[in-house]
Amino acid sequence: MTTSNVDALFKPFRLKSLTLKNRIVMAPMTRSFAPDGVPGDNNAAYYQRRAEGEVGLILSEGTVINRPTSRNEPNVPFFHGEQALAGWKKIIDDVHAAGGKMGPQLWHTGSVASFMTDWVPDAPVESPSGLIAPDQPRGNVMSDESIADTIAAFAQAAADAKRLGFDVAEIHGAHGYLVDQFFWSATNLRTDVYGGPTLKQRSRFAAEVVKAMREAVGPDFPLILRISQWKQQDFTVRLAPTPEEMSDWLVPLVEAGVDILHCSQRRFWEPEFPEIDGESGLNFAGWAKKLTGAATISVGSVGLSGDFMAAFTGEASQPASLDNLIERLDRNEFDLIAVGRALLSDPDWVTKVRTCNVDALQGFTAAALAELV
């Protein structure tokens, strides 16, 4: 592989109370190494190694809010309860000691079943309309009370993140999980204020989550929202097929209190609306920034061939050029770039890129998913 001047990746970034030494974010990646929901010393060491390896901002694996069926695997960490929060306190203290910045990704899996395990929670799962995918029932339709309790649980988790000393908090609103199930017309058939024929109407739940979190953390603590067009239930889904619909979707969420939109694509270099003349090169994060004025994070197969979902079928990836990424950062298409698999298997990936030691960059195999490196 060849890589051009990497200076664009190593410019500082500032937003509200957050100051980062570079533009590289560790993407949130489910690891499931927290027995009984409690992160331990191995989790702390895993994140600390990335801080030592010069990652600008670390986003944790999905960590679930205080709802009875918020997770779909047995070893996903909690972000509630005395023991789990004590584990997260050690993690953020160790990351800070290594010079890093970090935020938890706050998660509710909705009605989605894990494709990695047959485990199911003790109670029925919940979602907007009791669906896991179009015309596929699973679990309960959320009541007004359960919606209110879920919003309150997100707010409490955000307050705990700030109290513990984290630098940001991210809401997982992508990939077909609970928040995204409200966005998606195929899984949100509600006829109350949380449903409706338009994406803007179906975004009300997410907006209320954001508003509650903003009230819990105050004006200066940055909030990130991860979003995606695609769903794990269907890679071809597009919530917003036009810029106008994307604006209707995202502008109200930024107005509600989102500071950074984390725009998940399977491949970051693919144009979001290739049919539009003059803007055909902008990816999802580029369009989100253009339409809302918010800062954005791009993500999707950075530094490696192939995409993340293919890893679960055993597909390996090799190091890939960063030239396209650097060109996009140079023209301010987006503000930050999230790196997933490359950092999962190599804690020193950022240092190697900064020093242009490209020959030392490693490929990725599915075996890396089985251990905390």
* DSSP strand content: 15-25%
Q: For the residues shown, what is the average pLDDT? A: 94
Overall body shape = globular
**Structural class designation:** alpha/beta
The residue ranges in which pLDDT falls below 50 over 5 or more consecutive positions are none
Our count of helices gives 12
Proportion of residues in helical segments: 25-40%
How many β-strand runs?
14
Question: What's the Cα radius of gyration?
Answer: 19 Å
Arrangement of strands in the largest sheet: 3-4-5-10-11-12-13-14
The termini sit apart by 24 Å
Summarize the main sheet: 8 strands, parallel, barrel
N-to-C SSE string, H for helix and E for strand: EEEHEHEEEEEHEHHHEHEHEHHEHH
Organism: Rouxiella silvae
Protein name: NADH:flavin oxidoreductase
GO molecular function: FMN binding; NADP binding; NADPH dehydrogenase activity
Domain NADH:flavin oxidoreductase/NADH oxidase N-terminal: 9-354
Give a structural overview.
With 373 residues, this protein is of the alpha/beta class. Helices cover 32% and strands 15% of the residues. It contains 12 helices and 14 strands. It has helices spanning 41-52, 82-97, 144-164, 178-183, 199-202, 204-217, 243-256, 284-292, 308-311, 323-330, 341-345, 349-354; strands at residues 13-15, 18-20, 24-26, 57-64, 102-107, 126-127, 131-133, 136-137, 140-141, 169-172, 223-228, 260-264, 295-299, 336-339. It has an 8-stranded parallel β-barrel with strand order 3-4-5-10-11-12-13-14, surrounded by 5 helices. A two-stranded antiparallel sheet has the order 1-2. It has a two-stranded parallel sheet with strand order 6-9. Helix 7 crosses helix 8 (284-292). The protein starts with 12 loop residues before the first strand and ends in a 19-residue tail after the last helix. 49% of the residues are buried.
